[in-house]
C-alpha cells in the first residue's frame, strides 16, 4: 500500500528529469523535433551536448558570434522541418560536427590571417629597401654627374686662363694657339693616334693591293704556263721561298718559349720574312729575262706566300678561341667548339695540301736540285 502511494511521485520525478535534460523547456515544445527530443533520452543528451558546443563556440570565437548565431537559427529552421527520428538524429549529428570543427577552423583562419599580415609586412619592408637602394643609387649617380660637371668646368676654366695668358703674353702667344691649347687641357676628347699599321688595316688600301696582286699573279701564272716567264724554277726554289717565313716564325716561337725579350722574337720572325723576300727577288732575277717577267714573278711569289700565311694564321688563331652563344649550355658550347676546331684543322690540312700542289705545278722543273745550284747567279744561262 505504501508503494502504491509513492508511485505517482516517482512518475512525476522521471517526467521532470526528462523535461530538464534537453537544452530548452520541454513544457513549451511545439513541434515534432522538440517533442521527440524531450521524449527520447538519447536525443535529449545530444541536444544538450550541442547546446554546450554552441556556447563554447560563442566564447572561443568572439569575432564570429553573429555568424555562429545566424547559422544556429538556420539550423533550427532545418531541424524543425524533420518529421522522423532519423532526420532529427542526422540534423543533430551534422550540427555537432560543425560546432566541434568551429574552434579549429577559427584557429586556422587566425593563423592564415597572421601569415598574410606578416607577408604584407615583409613585402612593405622589401619595397622600402628597394626604394632606399634606388634612392642611394640615384644619389651616387647625381654625385658623379656633379663631379664630372665640376671637372669639365675646371678644365674649361684652365683653357680660358691659358688663352687669356697667351693673349696677354707676346712671348708665349707665338708657340701656343687656342687650337693647340684645348687638346692639351682636355686630352679626354682628343682622338687616339693610330699607328701606320692600324691606319693601313682600317683603310681600303690593302684591298686594292690584294686585288692588284691577284691580277698580276694570274697574269704571271699564264705567262709561266706559256713558257714566257718563270715563277718557281724547281722544287728547291719553291721550298726555300715558302719555308723561310715558317722557319722565322718557328724560331721566333722558340725565342719566346725561352723567355727571351719579346723584341728579339719579333726580329727573328721578321728576319725569316725578309730572307724569303730577298731570295724571291734573287730567284726571280736569276730565272727570268726582262723587267716585266722579273716583276711579275716577284709579285706572284710575294702574293701567293703572303695570302697563304695570312689565311693559315687566321685559321690557327681561331683554334684558340672558344665561343658561347646566348642561351647555350656550357656542355653544348664545348661540344660545338671541339667540332669547329676539328673542321678548322681539316681546312688547314686541305689548304696546305692544295697550296703544295699549286706550288709544285708552278715549278718549271719537277725536281729537287742542290742548294748551291739554286744560289748560282748566271745571267747567260737559259732559264728554260
Description:
This protein is mainly alpha-helical. It has 2 domains: 1-189, no CATH class; 200-375, no CATH class. The chain has 14 helices and 2 strands; from the N terminus they run H-H-H-H-H-H-H-H-H-E-H-H-H-H-E-H. The protein has helices at residues 2-21, 32-39, 41-60, 65-80, 85-168, 170-173, 178-185, 196-202, 205-226, 235-257, 262-287, 291-318, 330-361, 371-375, and strands at 232-234, 363-365. A two-stranded parallel ribbon has the order 1-2. The longest helix has 84 residues, at 85-168. The chain is elongated.
Distance between the termini: 168 Å
The chain-level structural class is mainly alpha
The number of domains is: 2
The largest β sheet comes out as: 2 strands, parallel
**Rg calculated over all Cα atoms:** 53 Å
Order of helices and strands: HHHHHHHHHEHHHHEH
Low-confidence stretches: 1-20, 171-189
Q: How is the largest sheet built, in terms of strand order?
A: 1-2
User: What's the number of extended β-strand segments?
Assistant: 2
Record the SSE blueprint.
Blueprint lengths: L1 H20 L10 H8 L1 H20 L4 H16 L4 H84 L1 H4 L4 H8 L10 H7 L2 H22 L5 E3 H23 L4 H26 L3 H28 L11 H32 L1 E3 L5 H5 L9
Parallel strand pairs: 1-2
Quick summary of this structure?
By secondary structure, the protein is an all-alpha fold.
Features of this protein?
384 residues; mainly alpha; 2 domains; two-stranded parallel ribbon; 2 strands; elongated; disordered N terminus
